[in-house]
Structures are given as structure tokens and as C-alpha cells.
TrEMBL record:
Taxonomic lineage of the native organism: Eukaryota, Metazoa, Chordata, Craniata, Vertebrata
Catalytic activity: S-adenosyl-L-methionine + a thiopurine = S-adenosyl-L-homocysteine + a thiopurine S-methylether
Chief location of this protein within or outside the cell: cytoplasm
Family indicated by similarity: Belongs to the class I-like SAM-binding methyltransferase superfamily. TPMT family.
Compartments, as annotated in UniProt: Cytoplasm
Protein's recorded name: thiopurine S-methyltransferase
Amino acid sequence: MTSTSVAPQKKLFDARHQEGRVMMLTDWVDRWEEKNIGFHQDRIHLLADMGHTIVGVEVSEIAIEEFFTEQNLSYSKEPVPGIPGAQVFKSTDGNISLYHCDFFQFSGTVAEKFNGIWDRGSLVAINPRDRQRYTDLIVTLMEEDCHYLLDTFLYDPSVHKGPPFYVPDHEIENLFGKSCNIKLLESVDALTDRQRKWGLDYFVEQVHLITLKQNSSLV
């Protein structure tokens, strides 16, 4: 997965510009209703095609229903014991289960721990003030041999208020370093016209591999 191209030069910015930024769950639901979903990817997850069992958590019911429609997959839905108002949407073949609920209500009591997690558009969407809470929950969902891929972005947060939010390397270390090993796999220039419209001239996408340290006390 490591890029063969030259990695862009990293720049450090003051993350405090986004400390007070807060997105409510209703804001994300509204974005789906208004089709303001530039973060959305239409293609199905490769791992599902390879036969792996996929579990996702999504706050927007529209997003879940559109996913199954776009992929031409039949599904069923049922309530989730222990989470009032939550539902789980399951593909007929059983390979994909998408939970419609607040992520912070999701836990190991709802689903078993995972040996692989792909975090694309999740940590970078979490309000900065909630990151440690998010990280603590993620760690409890990791099997001992779990490989957790974390996708983050570097840019000037004084220009763009987010989301996606600015998550520098030292923040990842502060969040995960106590219980996890952290390895940078890829760092690439991801600047497109979309980010230029935000006023940015620098936008780097990074992928880190995060694994649990042996005998971690937080698992």
C-alpha cells in the first residue's frame, strides 16, 4: 500500500482553529437529505467482494438505503437489542450489516470485536472535542491481531473549518500511542478543485496502520 511517489512535504498548523467546531448528528442527516455528500463514494467496498463480513455504523438511514440500492443488494432490517431506536440493515447473503445508530451507542455488546477496521471519513468527521472518546471506543472493538487503517488529512485549519477535520500526526500519537503501535503507510498530495474551492492550496491525505500493543491494558 506504500506509495512509490515522493511524499509531499509536511506542514504544521495550529489545530486550535477547529477546537470549538461542532457538528450535530442532525447536521449529517441533513447533508444526506440535501445531497451535500462530496465525501460519499459510490463503489462497493472491495473487502465485501472478496467475501469478508462487513459491519458499518451510519447515522443516516437514507445513506444506508441508498447504499443497498446503488449496489443492487436486497436486504432486511431489524431492531438492535440494547440501543433504543436503532436498526441493523443486513444484506440477504449476510456479508454486510449496517447499523443505523449513533456510533457512540455502538459497542462490543452489539457486535463482536473486529480483526480489521477501515476508518475512512470517521475520525476526521468526529468533533475534535470527542476524539478521545471515539478512540477509546475503537480500541475496545479491536481484536488482539486487528489491523486498523486510519485515513486522515493535513491542511490549514485557519482556512477551512472542517469537516473533514485537520488531524496531524502528533494528534494521532496522543490518541492512540498509549495502547497502539502507529505506522505511516502513505502520505500523498490529494489537493483537487474541491479543496481549492475551500480556499486551500495544500491538502495531504495520509493512511496509518494502527495495531494494538501486546498486553495493552485498554483492550
